[in-house]
Amino acid sequence: MYESYYGFTERPFQLSPDPRFFFATSHHQRALSYLQYGLDQGEGFIVITGPIGTGKTTIARNLLANIADENIVAAQLVTTKLAPEELLELVAAEFKIPVEGNNKADILQSIENFLVTLHNQGKRALLLVDEAQNLPAETVEELRMLSNFQLDNKPLIQSFLLGQEELKDIISAPDMEQFRQRIIASAHLKPLNLEEVKDYINHRLSQANCNKETLFSDDAFKLIFEKTLGVPRKINIFVDRLLLFGFLEELETITINAINEVAEEMAVELTGSLNGQNLTNEQKAQPLVVNSSENVENIKNVLREVEEILETSIQQKVKMTRYIDKLLKQKNREYAELQSKEAEN
Fold it and tell me: Which sequence ranges form a coiled-coil region, renumbered to this chain (predicted)?
C-alpha cells in the first residue's frame, strides 16, 4: 500500500486494536488507572463506558498485554445478547474449563471448582466483558452472582465491564442496586479534543517510524478533527484513506484540498448517509406525482445527484486502477533491483 511511499514500517492506522499503538489521553489514562486499581484491589467491578470508537477495547487489550502478575488468569468476552446460562457457558469456554453435564448447576459447579483450584495455586481469575451494553439485566446480575464465589474471605473472580453508554442505563436501573454497590470505580471515555487528535495522529505515525514531520500541517489536524469529531476509530479510517489518497496522487504533504476531497468521497462512511440527514416517515410515504412541475424539478435534482454519485464512483475506480498500476511498477522495480543484486553476487 502506501507504507513504502511514506517510509512507514507498517500501517499506522489499522482498525484492529494494537497495544503498541495505544495513546492515553487524560480520559484513557484515568480509565486505565481505574482498571489497574481494580487489579490491585482484587475485588469488585470496574465499569468503563464510552461512545462507539472511543477506545474501550484498546484499553482492555492494553491492560491484558501489560499484566505482569503471573498469578492473574485473564479471559476476555466480546458479548452479544447472552442469556445468563449462555454467559456461563462462554465463561467456561474462555477459561477452558471442562464441564460435566449440560445444565446450569453443572456449569456453575465446574466454574467454582476451577476458581478454587486457582486459589489453591495462589492465583485468581480476571474476566473482561467487552460490549457489555448488549447484556440483558438478568445476565449482568449473573455476573454479580459469580462474584459471590469466595474462599478465605477473598473473591475468586473479578470482572471488568466495558460498554457503550447504554450500559450506564442498565446499571442505573432500580433493581441493580446490589450490583452498583460492588462497583469500586467507573470511568467514561470521551472523543479527543483538537490537541489530542494532533498528538494521537503523531503518536501513531511515530510508532510506524514516520520521519516526515511536515506530513500534516496544523490546519490539516484541525480539519481532520472537524471531519471525525475526535472519535479515534473514525480518525483511523479517515487518515488511513488520506494516506492512500496521498500515495495515489503522489503528495509529499497531506493538503487541505486532499482532506476535503477524501471527506467528500467518504461522506457515507463518516456520517452514515450522503448528507447526514434521514428522511421522515412522512417524506418517505409521499407518492410521486409526475404531472406536477415541482415534482419534475425534484426528479431532475435526484437524477443530478445520481449522476454525481456515479461520477464519484467512476473516479474512485480510476484511482484504484492507478494505484494497482503504480503498485505493479513498484514491485517490478523491486524485482529488477533484486535480480541486479543477485547478478552482481
Answer: 296-344
Give a yes or no: residue 113 inside a domain: yes
Nearest alpha carbon to residue 38 among 49, 26, 27, 47: 47
Q: Mark whether 137 and 53 lie in a shared domain.
A: yes
Residue 307 in grid coordinates: 449522476
The answer to whether 187 and 34 are in contact (CB under 8 A) is yes
Q: Is residue 18 part of a domain?
A: no
Both 45 and 175 in one domain: the answer is yes
Grid cell 498500476 — which residue? 325
The three cell numbers locating residue 218? 496544523
Q: Note the pLDDT tens digit of each residue in 266-277.
A: 876 665 432 334
The three-state secondary structure class of 144 is helix
- Which pLDDT score is estimated for 274? 29
Task: Tell me if residue 280 falls in helix, strand or coil.
Answer: coil
Confirm if 139 and 87 have CB atoms less than 8 A apart. yes
Asked if residue 285 is part of any domain, the answer here is no
pTM score: 0.67
CA distances from residue 343 to 336, 337, 339, 340 in whole angstroms, order as listed: 10, 10, 6, 5
Range of the domain at 147: 26-188
17 located within any domain: no
> Which positions ≥6 away from 30 have C-beta within 8 Å?
187
The answer on 114 and 249 residing in a single domain is: no
- Residues of the chain short of pLDDT 70, as ranges, are 1, 68, 212-213, 268-323, 325-327, 345
Shared domain check, 326 and 203: yes
The alpha-helical segments, DSSP class H, found in 208-292 are 218-228, 232-248, 256-265, 267-271, 281-285
Q: Which amino acid is at 218?
A: D
Where among 136, 153, 188 does a domain terminate?
Answer: 188
Instruction: State the helix-helix crossing angle for 84-94 and 137-146, rounded to 10 degrees.
Output: 50
Encoded amino acid at 38, one letter: G
Q: 3-state class of 149 per DSSP?
A: coil
